[in-house]
User: Fold these one by one.
Assistant:
Number 1:
Amino acid sequence: MTIMFDDNSLRTIPDLVAFLGSAQSLSLHGHGTVRERSVWMRGILIRFSYTKRRKAEKAVIVRYLAYITGLSIRTARYHIAAYATNGPVPGAYRRHRFSPFYTAEDSILLAATDNLHGRMNGAATVAICAEEHRRGDQRYKRLGSISVSHLYNLRNQNTYQTHAITRGRTVAVSATIGQRKKPRCDGLPGFLRVDTVHQGDCNGEKGVYHIHLVDEATQWEVILSTPQISESFLLPLLQEALILFPFPIRNFHSDNGGEYINRTVAALLTKLQITQTKSRARTSTDNGLIEGKNGSVIRKHLGHWHINGRYAARINRFYREHFIPYLNFHRPCAFPTVTIDHRTGKKTISYPANTYCTPYQKLLSLATYETTVPKAVRQSLADQSILHTPNQAAEAMQTAKKFLMSLVTRPDDM
C-alpha cells in the first residue's frame, strides 16, 4: 500500500511546528529523482518566503525540509544556499571522468586477435597489432601502440573476457654417434634443434609422432608428422624437412633419443655435410629452445590427447599449407638480448618488446641473408610474406585446424 502525502494545507510557520510535533513517530520515505526532490524543496522555500523569515522561523523550515526528504540539516542548507543566491536547482552529483582512450571495441578486437593466435604473450600480441595497422587495418591504430603492461589490463576487463575463447618416455641409448656438446650458431642460420613430440597411445593404438625442427638463429620452424619413428618412415620425412628450410643446414642437434642417434640418420647427415651433435648429460638448456617450442606451438594447437597415427598424412597437409607458413611469416617470436656487467662479467638475458619479430623478419635482418639464401628463394619468401596479414593467416589456419580436429578426434579414435 502506498500513502500519498499532500502538504498544500501547510501555509504558516505554526502549521510546520504543529506538524513536526505530531509526526515524530512517523517515518517517511521519499521517492523520485534527485532533481525532483530539489524542485520540491525550492517550491517549499518559495511558499514560505524563506529569505524574509527570522532566524528561528528559518530553522523550522530547515527542519521540515530535512524531515520530509530524509537529508541531513547540512545538506538541506546546501539546497537553501543555491536558492538564496539564485543558483541552479542542484541535481545528481556526477564525478568528472576522462573519456577512456581504449574503448570496448578495442577490447573486443584484442579478444578476436587472441582467439586467432591462441593468446600469445603481450609483446608478441602487440607486434601483431602493430603489423596489422601497418598493413592498413585502422582498427588497430590504438592497439598497435599499446604498452605491453596495459595490454594485460585490457585482458582483465569483463568486455575482453566475455569475448575470449582462451606422453611417451624417450628411451636412453648409448652410442658414439654425434658429438656431445651444445652448438653455437654465432648468429648464422642453419643450426637446428630437433625433437619428437608423441600424441600418446590409446587402446593399444600408437599415436602420431611430430618431428619438430627449429633454427636457433631465426627460430624458423618446420613440423611434419609420421605414424612411426622407424627408419623407413623417419628418413624420407627428415629429407623433406631439411629441404623446407630456405637456407643451408649446418648443424643438426637433438637429444639422445634413438630415432636420431642411429647410423641411418648419421649417414644422411654426413652425405649432406651436416654436423650432428647431441645434448650433454644434466644440461637441460642444450635443447631448451625446442622444448619450449613443443609446448608453446605443438601442444598449444594440437593438445595432449591421442591422435591415431593413420592421420599423419592429413596432418602433414595442414602443416604444409597453413601451419608452417603461419609460424614463419606471421607469428612473432622472442629473441634474447644478452648484456654483460663490465665489473663482474655476469651475463643477463632479457627479452625486450622491440626484439619480437617473425622468423622471416629475423632472417631478413641477418647480414648474411643475401649470401645465404638464393635469389629465387628470396623472391618466393617476399611474395609469401605479403600474401596475408597476420590475422588473415591465423584465421585461415584456425579454420583448417578446426576441420582437421573434427577428422582426427572421432570417438572411435579416442
Number 2:
Amino acid sequence: MSDKVRCKCERCRIGELMGPVVLITVGVLFLIDQMDHSLSFGRLWPVLLLAIGGVKLAQSLASSEGHVSSKD
C-alpha cells in the first residue's frame, strides 16, 4: 500500500473529474455521430474543448482550503 496522502480539498476533487468528463464527452459525441449523420464528430469536437474548459474553470473557482501538497 502507498503511504501517499491524497488531498481532498474541493479544487483537487474537481480536478479528478477531468478524465471521466473527457471520456463521457467523447462517448456522447461518437454516439451522436452514429445516430445523426448530419452531425459528425468532425463538426462537434469543439464541444470536447468546452467540457475541458468547464472543468478547468470550476477547478479554478473552487476553494483550496485544506489542500495537502504531495511531497515527492
Number 3:
Amino acid sequence: MSSMYIKIWFPEDFEKKHEAYKAKILSPNHKISPFGESFEPVYGEFKPELTVGELQTFNDGTVRFKGEIISMRGQLKELCRLFMENNQKLVTFDDVRDQIIDSKKRSSIANSTISKYVSELRSKLRKHFGSDVLPNQKKEGWIPDIKKMN
C-alpha cells in the first residue's frame, strides 16, 4: 500500500498577508462577522415576526416564550414556526417534510423521523406551557392547539 501525500502551495507573501489580516481582525475597532466586513449588528432592536399567545419568533432567529429564549436547533425553530403559522389547522407529515427537510433528502425521510422531530419540539414547548400544545391527529399529523398557547 502506497502512501499518498498532498502538497499545498501558498503564495510567497502568504505569511505577510496572514499577519496583516490577523492584526486587523484583532484590533479593538474591528467587528468580526460572517456577513462581511461592513456588517454592523444592531442590538436591542429585535422585533417579533410571529406571535401566537405567549410564543413568539423574532427577527434574530430566536423563539421565545414570555420573552424567554427557548434554546433549540435550527430545524426545530423552523418546525415551531410552521406550527405557529398553522394554529388549529392540520399540519401533515408532508407539510413538515417540505418545511424542514432538505429537498434532496425528502423522499428518504420516514414519518417516524419526522415524529421524532415533533416529539423533541413538543417536549421543549411542554416545559414552558405545562401541557401538550401539539396533539396528534390519528397518523395524519398534528393540530396545534392555540387555546393552550394563550
Number 4:
Amino acid sequence: MGLITGLVTLPLAPVRGVAWIAEQVAEEAARELDEEERLRRELGRLGLEHDLGDLSDEEFEQREDELLERLAVVRRERTEEGM
C-alpha cells in the first residue's frame, strides 16, 4: 500500500479492524464446532466397531471414556468463552 493510499484509507482503519476481529471469531467458532462434530463421529464409529466385534468391551469403554472427556472439555471451553 502506498503512502497516499494509506493516508486516504486511514479513516477506514477501524472498520477494517472490526471486520478482521469478526472473521477471527467466526473462524474460531467454526473450529470448535468442527472439533465437537469430529468427536461425535468418532464416538459413532467406535460404537460401530464394538458392535461388529472389532473392539473388546474393555477397549471400547476406555476409548469411549477418552472421547467423552475430550468432548466435555470442548463444550466446557465453549461455554466459558461465551460468558
